[in-house]
Design a protein that fits this description.
The complex is a heterotrimer. Chain A is of the alpha/beta class. Chain A is built from eleven helices and twelve strands. Classes of the chains: A alpha/beta, B mainly alpha, C alpha/beta.
Chain lengths: ~325, ~375, ~525
């Protein structure tokens, strides 16, 4: 019975490809290779869509891809099953979204961290460099040694973008500051290697670093632990991680993928899905830095003033933060 | 004197019955787990099988995975016939893809497809071979164990590709560490395009012309291993190195040749992925196919026919497994990997677990008629 | 073996009435269509040595494998000391007090002797305690039976003869009361054989029951109390040894008269085809395994090498056949000089017209997993007769193999049967056929008749003499002194890697050779011999 039902369903999907109506609200999300519990990017999205689910009471379809080829397959399948909107996570899903969005012009798509120029796609990108700039300012001001560190996850342009903004911000606050950078690795496992993260951090501490910023997914856990053990400062990333080690977590650079994901579902459910570019920088509140009860004692009034000033200057265009990915280089 | 080995099972039992029983055992255990998480195992099995064969698109994906597994399975098998365990299919496939990509990036605007295709095949083979050449040399002439060196070369491949894609061949003004997309004339035609030429309309899938090359490779491997003097020497070295020495076979050269061919076969995964599916050089396209090739080869008894069947099985598991994760929310992708792991465990690692029982069964069945005859 | 003395006293006078140590009733075993054992009845009284003789494939090994638990009989019962006993595996057999020394040793090559003996008999999880105890016990056994082996030597580095002693020690260590020996003397020198027989004799006098499987009728006559003769899976006769003779046994075995003497003319040596000059092979530890050996072989003569196994014969064969590199000195083969600066591998040596029948056929001579056809071209696999430009010619290879099988009566005549599934004698015939087919000008032969039945031995010997008469130069290495004496025109004796003496085949007698092999000739005589060499 079930077999028949299933086969019939599959066949129906094939012939009814174009029947999905823009008005139907059946949200779906395709997580990328890190998986939805990656303690980072995908998990941020997961939290966002879960929040939507509990608030709106609407279930969503989900899939976690395990290889390159599955991205397109999964996104197409979502569209075939009438999901709308389909949310893709990560720049790597860009080409797949682009292709499938062409095949299904009546379905809405959204993608985080990538620009896909299609009339039915909302592209959500963040100005990570701006957020990184701010925590760079804080790092340089908190540092007594004049050396700050950066631990990246997998060595890809996006992470270099974080690193570059961070370095620029640090040098903005203190032109003499030295920024020491390490990448954890070159495979996706670099996103989830706390041991290696701790090792790199200790190495940086040995070289005089006393504030370290980690943009490394799950690897960051090791970085924060190492900083807590050594009594030095660490800066979290993506979500507010200040609570992890109150006292040594200087701050967290926020990248609100959860908000972005939530908003995609929310706006769609209200029939207000807007295709096109959705650039979330400081001005839009898409990035920022975290100040809460866990770190308020660590941030002096002077530091807060400086970082607020920098934020205002960036929003006003007085400070231009270099985007590594615009020209593949970093001057800082 | 009679031999001291037990009489072997009939060939069909060895190559078909035992793997089948192993698969059933694996499915049985997997079914128990499915039951434990509160889902219906039969429904899961239906979804798995229908998800792999049920409609055109799924079949295309299944065969696309199969293509990769045939390449890596053959790669492991050829080395295995020389008693070598090439565990570096992953890296060789990765670098093979790099070779294909470099050739196509350099010449895609210049040469027509029919000239690019042989060049890409050669590039995949050459780069794959080159990547195994150092481990092979170290094994043959310096006695470094091939398992260790090929694993290390997998890591070197990851880092090399990462460096190249992030810093050297990345197309400007884009986020992803990927090369630019090749010109259309450098794409291996998709199967739905090929069938389209004959007027057969099918769903678009990643399955492409590389499947034909995989079949060619199967035939090549069979001929090479069993119908050429080089294959003869290779098997001699693999089965009895002393006898090889007695026969005047230079086992060091054979090690180089066996691993070289193995690397080339693994490199063709790069062709399927880079030229056939993605049309650009990108990161992590190997996605474990190299490692799965070991299980495929083990299950396929290092024979091309067995490898094709085992590849198909793993294709089903990959595609049907994705379908499971898609259809049943309780099935995470980790769960699908666990089922694949069970199959590998029962069919690969525990291949011979139930052989004694089956042999016993055969003896019982075979010796039964004898007393009956006597009585009659 | 604790209360043996009282046991012996008890058993000996009333051996007729006390239960037999082993009593097999109606044992049958079939492998597919082959009836390996057919209703076998065998009774072995306690404290006797019982010989079992038969041609290759007569079912001796199968019978013993059933007794030792490798196979289960299709039908029939086993009684040990009068008690019906189920033996399903070797653990059951060991429990029943049965020990076995196999024709092909069951030793782990890279274990030490001690580790091999202890394998499967360890007590407790930690080895260290039981190792010390085992060492003490083994040293006692070694002293008692004169079976000296270096317990710390790596097994694969020992000569075959010593490996066998390890096997015997292993069985004794497990407290065997019944000892099965499968072709035990095939690898031993006469002295070692004598020593083995002394051991068996003393075991017998202590009440141990010994079953001896052999081809060698001389040994049956020398040591056994009773003998059973097997043919085609059946026991065709039981004899008291004192009431039979070699001729009768040989006839019962093969069912026809066999000549044990070899009929050959005087040699007619021609040109020197193999000239060995100060040939030396040094092993990885710097020991000269072959120590400045010089001799020559002319067309039309057979030169035999006698020696206790492990005295450099294997290295001589391997150096001359290109398997081992020459460390020092040289040899001239058909006019081509081979030395350390001009090495030749096995293929090149073969191309120079030198064929090689290796001593250890399973290790070197064939590939067990290959079918007979594939094994039949080992070493000749590049021959254009079997190869096209790219593809091999399977039909040509099959036909070649079928020819070899026909010419040397290899049974079964099935080129597609796995090499491992042929009996030892038939494997050997296939290898001999392969190496002799092309009428090589020089033939190196190691242990040509090891484990081969009488009918085949005679045939093989005839072939070797025929090759000599056709003008081949033949180097024969054998631990069978009978074989060397009857085949060789000249006999060289090797000891510790050197040639210590030479006698002509005609004048050779077993005693002198035996003394030379032990390097125990009176001083004058020995120096004379060395001077000649």
């Amino acid at each position: 019975m079930k077999a028949i039902k299933y086969a019939a369903g599959a066949a129906a999907v094939m012939f009814a490809v174009a029947s999905a109506q823009a008005g139907d609200f059946k949200p779906a999300v395709v997580f990328d290779m890190g998986g939805k519990f990656d303690k980072s990017f995908n998990e941020g999205v997961y939290n966002g869509v879960e929040r939507f689910k509990s608030e709106a009471g609407t279930k969503y379809r989900e899939f976690e891809v395990t290889n390159e080829t599955q991205r397109e397959q999964a996104i197409r399948k979502m569209a075939q099953r009438g999901s709308n909107p389909v949310l893709g996570i990560g720049f790597a899903q860009g080409p797949a979204i682009e292709k499938v969005a062409t095949e299904f012009p009546d379905t809405n798509f959204a993608i985080i961290d990538m620009v896909v120029d299609k009339p039915n796609v909302q592209s959500i990108v963040f100005k990570e460099h701006e957020g990184s700039f701010l925590v760079g300012v804080l790092a340089a001001m908190a540092s007594k040694s004049g050396k700050v560190g950066f631990v990246g996850g997998m060595d890809i342009p996006l992470i270099r973008k974080f690193a570059c903004g961070f370095a620029q911000g640090a040098k903005h606050a203190n032109a003499d500051v030295e920024v020491i950078q390490n990448m954890t690795g070159s495979t996706p496992s670099a996103w989830n290697d706390p041991g290696r993260g701790a090792e790199l951090t200790k190495g940086q501490f040995d070289r005089g670093v006393d504030v370290v910023f980690a943009a490394a997914g799950g690897t960051g856990i090791g970085v924060y632990q190492a900083a807590a053990d050594a009594g030095k400062y660490a800066i979290g990333v993506d979500s507010n991680q200040n609570h992890l080690h109150p006292g040594t977590m200087l701050t967290s650079m926020l990248k609100r993928v959860d908000v972005a994901a939530y908003n995609v579902f929310k706006s769609s459910s209200e029939g207000k899905f807007v295709p096109g570019m959705n650039v979330l920088g400081l001005a839009e509140g898409g990035v920022g830095w975290a100040l809460d009860e866990h770190n308020e004692k660590l941030i002096s009034a002077e530091m807060k003033a400086a970082v607020d000033q920098a934020e205002a200057d960036i929003i006003a265009g007085k400070i231009v933060v270099q985007d590594y990915m615009s020209d593949n280089k970093c001057d800082y | 004197m009679s031999t001291k080995v037990k009489k072997p099972l009939p060939v069909w039992a060895d190559v078909a019955l035992i793997p089948l029983i192993n698969i059933l055992l694996a499915l049985f255990v997997a079914g128990l787990i499915v039951l434990a998480i509160g889902e219906d195992p039969f429904e899961a099995l239906e979804i798995l099988i229908l998800g792999a064969f049920g409609y055109e698109e799924s079949l295309g994906y299944t065969l696309y995975y199969t293509t990769n597994f045939i390449f890596t399975g053959l790669a492991v098998a050829v080395a295995f016939h020389a008693s070598l365990f090439n565990i570096g299919g992953e890296g060789q496939a990765y670098i093979g893809g790099l070779g294909v990509g470099l050739i196509l990036l350099a010449l895609d605007g210049i040469l027509p497809f029919w000239m690019l295709l042989p060049l890409a095949i050669m590039a995949a083979a050459l780069f794959g071979t080159a990547w195994v050449a150092v481990p092979a040399y170290l094994q043959a002439y310096r006695g470094s164990h091939i398992v260790i060196t090929t694993i290390m070369f997998n890591f070197i491949a990851y880092f090399l590709m990462n460096y190249l894609l992030v810093d050297v061949i990345k197309a400007p003004a884009q986020m992803s560490p990927e090369s630019r997309v090749f010109a259309d004339n450098a794409h291996m035609p998709f199967m739905h395009e090929i069938l389209g030429w004959f007027g057969i309309e099918t769903a678009a899938t990643p399955l492409n012309g590389s499947l034909f090359w995989a079949v060619v490779c199967c035939i090549f491997v069979w001929i090479f291993i069993w119908r050429t003097r080089w294959g003869y020497m290779l098997r001699t070295v693999g089965q009895n190195e002393s006898a090889a020495q007695y026969a005047g076979i230079d086992s060091r050269k054979i090690v180089m040749v066996a691993l070289g061919i193995s690397g080339a076969l693994a490199g063709f995964v790069g062709m399927n992925e880079v030229m056939g599916v993605h049309h650009k050089v990108l990161l992590n396209f190997v996605a474990g196919y190299g490692f799965t090739g070991i299980a495929v080869s083990l299950m396929g008894r290092n024979h091309p026919v067995g490898i094709v069947l085992a590849s198909l099985l793993f294709g089903i598991l990959y595609q049907g497994g994705a379908e499971l994760a898609f259809e049943i929310p309780a099935f995470s992708r980790e769960f699908v990997v666990a089922i694949q792991g069970l199959i590998i465990l029962f069919c690969g690692a525990l291949t011979y677990m139930c052989k004694p029982w089956i042999e016993g069964l055969f003896y019982m069945l075979q010796s039964d008629p004898k007393p009956a005859e006597k009585e009659a | 073996m604790a209360n043996t003395e009282t046991l012996v006293e008890m058993v000996q006078p009333e051996s007729e009435s006390s239960p037999a140590a082993i009593n097999l009733r109606g044992i049958s075993k079939a492998f597919g269509p082959v009836q390996a054992n057919d209703d076998v009845n065998l009774s072995v009284p306690k404290g006797t040595i019982h010989g079992i003789v038969g041609e290759n494939g007569a079912g001796k090994s199968t019978l013993m494998s059933i007794l030792y638990g490798f196979y289960e009989a299709d039908r029939g019962d086993i009684y040990i000391s009068g008690k019906k006993t189920k033996i399903k595996n070797s653990t059951d057999a060991i429990k029943a007090g049965i020990g076995m020394v196999h024709q092909h040793f069951m030793l782990v090559d890279n274990f030490t002797v001690l580790e091999n003996i202890m394998l499967g008999a360890e007590s407790g999880a930690m080895l260290s305690g039981s190792i010390a105890a085992a060492r003490t016990e083994l040293e006692r056994l070694e002293r008692e039976y004169g079976l000296f082996v270096n317990l710390d030597a790596i097994t694969e580095e020992l000569p075959v003869g010593e490996q066998q002693r390890v096997e015997i020690l292993k069985a004794l260590y497990r407290g065997a009361e019944i000892l099965i020996l499968d072709e035990p003397t095939g690898v031993l020198t006469p002295q070692e054989t004598d020593q083995l027989f002394k051991i068996l004799d003393s075991l017998r006098s202590q009440g141990v029951t010994v079953i001896l499987i052999t081809h060698k009728l001389r040994e049956i006559m020398a040591i056994t109390n009773n003998v059973s003769i097997m043919r085609q899976g059946k026991i065709v006769a039981d004899r008291k040894t004192s009431e039979t003779n070699r001729e009768e046994l040989a006839e019962l075995m093969v069912g026809r008269k066999v000549r044990i003497e070899i009929d050959k003319d005087d040699p007619n040596p021609q040109a020197m085809l193999l000239d060995v000059d100060n040939l030396t092979v040094t092993d990885s530890q710097g020991i000269d395994r072959l120590d400045h050996v010089s001799f020559g072989i002319r067309a039309g003569e057979i030169v035999g090498i006698a020696g206790v196994s492990g005295n450099g014969q294997s290295e001589l064969l391997e150096a001359l056949s290109g398997i081992q590199p020459v460390s020092e000195g040289s040899f001239v083969l058909n006019g081509v000089t081979v030395n350390a600066n001009n090495p030749k591998d096995a293929a090149e040596i073969r191309d120079l017209g030198c064929a090689h029948v290796p001593e250890d056929r399973l290790r070197l001579g064939l590939v067990k997993t290959f079918n007979a056809a594939e094994s039949s071209i080992l070493g000749y696999h590049l021959d254009p007769a079997y190869n096209g430009r790219i593809l091999t010619k399977p039909d040509a290879i099959r036909n070649h193999c079928a020819d070899l099988m026909e010419s040397f009566d290899v049974r079964p005549r099935d080129p597609s049967l796995k090499s491992a599934n042929f009996s030892g004698g038939n494997q050997q015939k296939l290898i001999l056929a392969r190496e002799m087919k092309d009428k090589p000008s020089v033939l190196l032969v190691g242990q040509p008749t090891r484990g081969v039945d009488i009918g085949a031995i005679e045939f093989i010997h005839k072939q070797i003499v025929a090759m000599r008469d056709e003008g081949s130069a033949i180097l024969l290495v054998s631990v069978e002194l009978d074989e060397v004496m009857s085949l060789a025109d000249r006999i060289l004796v090797m000891f510790e890697g050197r040639i210590v003496g030479e006698v002509s085949g005609k004048d050779a007698d077993e005693k002198t050779l035996g003394l030379m092999m032990a390097n125990a000739l009176p001083r004058n005589n020995k120096q004379k011999q060395e001077g000649q060499a």
